[in-house]
Design goal:
heterodimer, A: alpha+beta, Alpha-Beta Plaits, 2 domains, four-stranded antiparallel β-sheet, 10 helices, 68% helix, 7% strand, disordered N terminus, B: 219 residues, alpha/beta, Rossmann fold, six-stranded mixed β-sheet, 7 helices, binds adenosine-5'-triphosphate, binds magnesium ion
């Protein structure tokens, strides 16, 4: 693989100027160099999309969890001879006085009826049915001592039980963990693929430069001089490719974030945002993508250094 | 300056290309290296240039046992040696001027300190007008002259040239030989590998003749 040199350079140079050394040691704008930039750009783009998707799922999963975890319900079950209204009022009073609880709201009979409408139809009076009453309790970051609350309730309000959604949360936690683990797995594969293709593309681009290495070696350049030049050149190529690929991915995320903000409220987007929260990878996501660009450029530079050193070894 | 003692060379598991070479290259000396094609002239020049290692024997260059030198030390030593390859090895992406100035650039010297020198030499070898041209558009003879200019620009103590007149007409060959002789007079030891009998007849110098792996010296 040899790259055609830029023959027009000699024509561009007006021959009256004094000659100058302004060509870099490593040929710029070679075909294989451009191919390397393209490979790096595409792989960085794909890896960035994967990173973004994983971060989105992870953020969303923890959002779901914390929303649900900041809410518990008290159920007051009916029983023959039990005054459900009084029991509910008592439970509300106990919960309201409990330290750490920020909101207590009992569903009225009518609200409970509406909850059941989809199953039982309209126009039904709860008096005729033994329907339990629900009290929703909200709290802040720090959960109150739910065990104590449960104990007090069961002692003082017959038929009351506390449901902290533990089963749901556990299931969701497992699901989110599975999704995130799968995402991380895909991300690792993506990374391996990126590194491999960048490594091979770099080697390909280096093959065209074997003569340069040999000639520099023959005119007495030390190995560190030669590999330094190549490393710098390939770092720049890697950064260029990474910036194109990672930059496009970031732009895509930014646009997606904007769109989901603009269309907030329209039905379709509400569904999506119910699932994914705000469609944005956040500053952490952008930092992750940016460090990916740097990492991939570093791999390019490192590979070129390895290849130079191996070439130098074969020519003594 | 250079001392070979019982030097042997083989490539891989092949036959010995060079056998029991024992000779010296004295400071300020001028020698032709000749012999049939495939006799090992290029191989001997590569040994002299420290680009390959002998399979056996001892090579001393500028007072250093070559086998014990580090890579960096060999690179530094190579700066005292100029070499012209049979296939020129010019960098296609650099102008003729830049190719010739390359040894200085690698040494880290400032361009102002050598620009005039490079231009003067380019004029001398008749490439003054081709200074801005890239090697792919040079003729064979022009490439050859550029390669020679690159080898001599840093005034090496030892100049090795592999068929330096292979691509030029007799009058230019004579001009290039004069360049080598001038260089030799200013103190450089010169080794020219050549088949060109006419060229050797033009100048009275030592002749090193390689035949069947052995070296015969005619003073
Ligand atoms: N890198 C190599 N690997 C294996 N064998 C080689 C290598 N280089 C040279 N040879 C062999 O060593 C022998 C000497 O080759 P060399 O190039 O030194 O000859 P030469 O005298 O320069 O010939 P010419 O006059 O044709 O240039 C040849 O038989 C050649 O095939
Ligand atoms: Mg040869």
């Amino acid at each position: 693989m040899t790259d055609a040199p830029d023959l027009t350079a000699s024509m561009r140079m007006p021959s009256r100027l004094p000659p100058r050394n302004d060509t870099p040691m490593v040929p710029k704008n070679s075909i294989s160099g451009r191919a390397l930039v393209a490979v790096v750009a595409i792989m960085t783009f794909l890896a960035s999309l994967t990173t973004g998707a994983v971060m989105l799922v992870r953020a969303t999963a923890s959002e779901w969890q914390s929303d649900v975890a900041r809410e518990v319900t008290i159920q007051v079950r009916p029983a023959p001879g039990r005054d459900l209204d009084a029991a509910t009022a008592k439970a509300v009073q106990i919960a309201g006085a409990f330290p750490g609880i920020t909101g207590v709201r009992a569903y009225t009979k009518e609200e409970s009826a509406r909850l059941l409408e989809p199953w039982l139809g309209t126009g039904l009076t709860l008096d005729e049915l033994p329907v339990p009453r629900l009290i929703v309790i909200k709290f802040g970051e720090n959960a109150p001592d739910l065990g104590l609350l449960r104990k007090i309730l069961s002692e003082q309000v017959p038929g009351a039980s506390l449901d902290d959604h533990r089963g749901w949360i556990d299931r969701m936690r497992t699901m989110a963990a599975t999704v995130v683990a799968a995402g991380v797995g895909i991300l690792l594969l993506m990374f391996a693929a990126t590194m491999l293709s960048v490594t091979f593309a770099t080697r390909g681009a280096m093959a065209a430069n074997r003569t340069v290495i040999e000639v520099l070696h023959f005119v007495g350049a030390k190995d560190s001089f030669i590999s330094g030049h190549f490393q710098r050149h390939f770092l720049m190529l890697g950064l260029k490719g990474g910036a194109i690929g990672g930059g496009s991915a970031m732009a895509l995320f930014a646009i997606a974030g904007l769109f989901s903000d603009w269309f907030a409220g329209s039905a379709g987007v509400d569904q999506v945002s119910a699932l994914f929260g705000s469609f944005s990878i956040g500053p952490a996501g952008y930092i992750a993508v940016a460090s990916q660009i740097v990492l991939i450029a570093a791999v390019t530079a490192w590979t070129s250094r390895q290849t130079v050193n191996r070439t130098l070894q074969t020519i003594g | 300056m250079v001392r070979f003692e019982n030097v042997g060379l083989r490539y891989g598991l092949g036959p010995e290309v060079l056998r029991d070479l024992t000779f010296r290259i004295e400071p300020h000396s001028f020698q032709f290296l000749t012999g049939p094609s495939g006799a090992g002239k290029t191989s001997l020049l590569r040994l002299l240039f420290l680009s390959i290692k002998p399979t056996r024997g001892l090579i001393t260059q500028f007072g250093h046992d070559v086998a014990t030198l580090s890579k960096d030390a060999r690179a530094t030593l190579r700066r005292r040696i100029g070499i012209v390859f049979q296939d020129f090895r010019l960098l296609d992406h650099m102008t003729t001027y830049e190719n010739v100035a390359l040894p200085f650039r690698v040494m880290g010297r400032h361009e102002d300190s050598y620009r005039d020198e490079v231009v003067e030499l380019l004029n001398w070898v008749g490439l003054g007008e081709r200074m801005w041209a890239l090697p792919p558009v040079l003729s064979g003879g022009e490439k050859q002259r550029a390669a020679i200019a690159r080898a001599v620009i840093a005034r090496p103590q030892l100049l090795l040239a592999d068929e330096p007149t292979g691509n030029v007409d007799p009058s230019l060959a004579q001009r290039l030989l004069r360049l080598f002789i001038e260089l030799n007079k200013s103190g450089t030891s010169v080794v020219i590998a050549t088949h060109d009998i006419a060229l050797m007849d033009q100048y009275d110098a030592h002749r090193l003749v390689l035949h069947e792996g052995r070296l015969h010296i005619y003073d």
